[in-house]
Amino acid sequence: MSEGSSSTTSVVEEERLNWRRGSGPESGDVVVYWMQQAQRAEHNPALEFAITTANDHDLPVAVVFCLVDDVPEASLRHYHFMVEGLHRLDGALRRRGMAFEVLRGQPDRILGDLNHRMALLVLDRGYLPMQRRWRDDVEEATDCPVVEVETDVVVPVDVASDKLETAARTLRPRIHDHLERFLVDLATTPVSRSSVPGGDRPVSLARSLSDSSISSFPLDRWRTELDELPISREPGPVAGWTGGTPAARARLRAFCRDVLPDYATRRNRYDVADSCSRLSPYLHFGQISPVAVAVAARSSGAPADEVDAFVEELVVRRELAINYVVHQPDVDSFTSLPRWARRTLDDHRADERPTVYTAAELEAGKTDDRVWNAIMTAIRTDGWVHNQLRMYWGKQILYWTNTPGHAFRTLLDLNNRYFLDGRDANSYANVAWCFGRHDQGFQEREVIGKLRPFTDAALRRKGDLDAWVDSVTGGDDQAG
After folding, report:
1. pLDDT by residue (tens digit) across 84-103?
2. What's this model's pTM, rounded to 2 decimal places?
3. CATH code at position 464
């Protein structure tokens, strides 16, 4: 990929569309966009397609978000960041002339109850097993036309590959074959028929509900309402992170200005501030578009090789993770790992571990490894750590658990519960990478077999490890 500007279009590429039922609006008085994966009012192909279609049929557009309060492994930490973003999204959508309603309940019950109103139901695509089940259930609960629009990758998943890719080297050329065609700045489409209160055709979908188990979630009182949700309160919100598209845009601007010009040399420096984009939580909740991020990077004026290095991470590596969760069954299971990795770990299952810790001890950072404890502390308190530290953190758990399967489950659980960007395609792929996914065999060692090792010596080569640990612990020894 070379430096340069990208074109602007208001047309959503045909390859992003999947008509799950029908081919256009039918009876009904509103086009409804069920927003789930792409929680933003700009550079959102599903939203722009809904608006364009509604305009063509002289219909208003309403956006619905289904707030599910029993998502596994999600806690107040994740809900706070997400709902804070929805609060900011509300004003952005209404300024564009669209009603936005957050309704509490399962998506199939909510949208099934609204079926009689919908001339067309627009979905954004989700990649994780739960997201796919939600969409299948919604399709079954409705009989209106349904179109799914791919919103959160640069190159649509099925265009890039129709099979499980084994490594970045196999997906990379497929991505680059299509990159220029999809790397376009999507324009916003004016709404012809306003659906906000006071507009020419007010829409209130909540008043059309007959299912008493569904309730509205008023975003003007989001903090109070969040306190009353029956969700896990721990881990709680983290300081230093603000949810929503405005915060994501601000972070992107700072990254392009201050970090991207030296990205290739700085990105592995975990011990310096702002060595990477720190956009992963915003990408996870769809509060910013990966296309918009890539376009901004290309337009930043940074050297082409620095932009290329960033796009490799943003597009190739991220979309490799999405390819993995789409094409690999049971991504939350040890059985999803490559056969060679499972075989080598099984060969070393009986190897003596230096120490075995309980899951509670690991969660509390109570090991004899001061570096690992500091990383776990940062994860618990900040909800994020640099990827170099995250790799070391993930790799060590194999040495401290009695079976590889238990190690896998423990690492995935800690990752998904504590990271703001947990429960993401990258989460599953990165945990699996610690166990050999998208990798190759190395010299055989005790416990880990042929898996790639990652030691604190590797961290010391990339930064001042002692200074970073001291910055977390305040100089106190966290070991044991």
Report:
1. 999 999 999 999 989 899 99
2. 0.95
3. 1.10.579.10
